[in-house]
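Q: What structure does this chain adopt?
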Amino acid sequence: MTRQLKLRIHSVKCVDETGGKYFEKLGNDEIYLSGFTIDGEGKTTKIPAFNIYSNFDDGEVKKYDPPHTFTTFTVSDTKNWPKDFGVCFLLFERDSGDMNEALDMAYQKFKEEVNSKMASAKGSDKNSFAIPWEIIFSTIIPMVARYLQSIIASAISDDPFPLESVSLNIPGENFNWGGSNTSPIDKVEFRGNDGVYYLFYDWELIGKNEGWFDLPKERDHRTS
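A:
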């Protein structure tokens, strides 16, 4: 049985507008979100940038009802349990630059590094294989975050927040959250450019399940 795993965005809150107190008086934040993902089999994808809200002020919230599906994974029950799924968020305040170009370059770097580490892991043990998740989250994502910052500093005028990432561990095919196919809502915090934003999200599993395990080992990684 194949199931779908969705990461859904419930709301984005402007806690503190970017630019500091002086620049906040001159305009509003035009906030966009993009990112990339890695699934339980090591496949990576890019999420194109989209507009969250064009006129954020301190305290304003953009709500999604129903929740906005940021990405959808396919969860195959055929092999390789447990499975991990990772999502990287790139939130940015748009000025006059082209963050899509920077995202493309960062995603290619991410994909190349993931493929390289997976090839090394496969080569080291031909009898078993597990995606090197700790390497991906402790080494590759911070490296890509630094690479992205260097691209932006040299060529892009938009204002990105530090790259943030979350992941979910699914231990087996019948997993859910204590009888629910939807996880509790969690939060990602973005700090940068003299601003603070919160992104509220959950996970949703769609498909047959006849039992459940304990809550997942979910990680929230700061990469700044």
